[in-house]
Amino acid sequence: MKKVILLIVLSLSLTSCSLLNRLIDAPLGIPPYTCDDKGLCVQSFNKNFEFKVLDCIGDPVKQTVEITVGLKNKMRNKLVSFSCNKSNYSYAYDENKHIFEIKEIKFPNSQTSHTNYEKFYSPTGVMLKGKIVFRNVLPSVKKFKKVSGYVTFQNEHINSLEEVKKSWYGIKNLNINWRK
């Protein structure tokens, strides 16, 4: 009987620890990571935006890694801004904790602002394909342990009275497919 109780208590504590880790990774308003069967985990920056990884290609000559992502807005049209600025903690790091900076972010019709944000309009219900590129990545890096970036979004019109929402996206355990 004591062994059964101990196993139940141990099982509950492991479950609550896992739940606690998910809550720590998902601050208020940000959905938790969703993981596929290969271990790739993706976290959107808001429950009303679908954010997914479509591909991850490394270029050994340019020493860059290009992550192709899909973004779909479930709300009315929004102005979305992805930070390319390392001071906003937009980065990737590998299994050895080497940090890689963003080289560029591109979405359809996006423009870089003077504050180093890539801004674009996200229409309702349309999946946009974008690219997040990291520089100075050697082919010996096989996986990004974590990718994180700062995002803001607001109503479509810049002069809107709606408050600018600020958040983060996250990607974990991202395998890099290096070109030959």
If classified by CATH, what would the architecture of the largest domain be? Sandwich
Counted up, domains total 2
Determine the mean pLDDT.
83
Oligomer: single chain
Order of helices and strands: HEEEEEEEEEEEEE
Your description of this structure?
By secondary structure, this protein is mostly beta strands. It folds into 2 domains: 1-29; 31-178, Immunoglobulin-like, CATH 2.60.40. It is built from 1 helix and 13 strands; from the N terminus they run αβββββββββββββ. Strands 1, 2, 3, 4, 5, 6, 7, 8, 9, 10, 11, 12 and 13 form a 13-stranded mixed sheet that branches. A hairpin with a 4-residue loop joins strand 8 (111-112) and strand 9. The longest helix is centred in the first third of the chain and has 24 residues, at 2-25. The radius of gyration is 19 Å and the shape is globular. It starts with a helix and ends with a strand. Mean pLDDT is 83; it is low at 2-27.
Features:
Immunoglobulin-like; 180 residues; 13-stranded mixed β-sheet
Any chance you could write out the topology, listing elements then pairs?
Elements: H1 2-25, E1 34-35, E2 41-43, E3 49-59, E4 64-73, E5 78-83, E6 91-94, E7 99-106, E8 111-112, E9 117-122, E10 127-135, E11 143-155, E12 165-175, E13 177-178
Parallel strand pairs: 3-13
Antiparallel strand pairs: 1-2, 2-12, 3-4, 4-10, 5-9, 5-11, 6-7, 6-11, 7-10, 8-9, 11-12
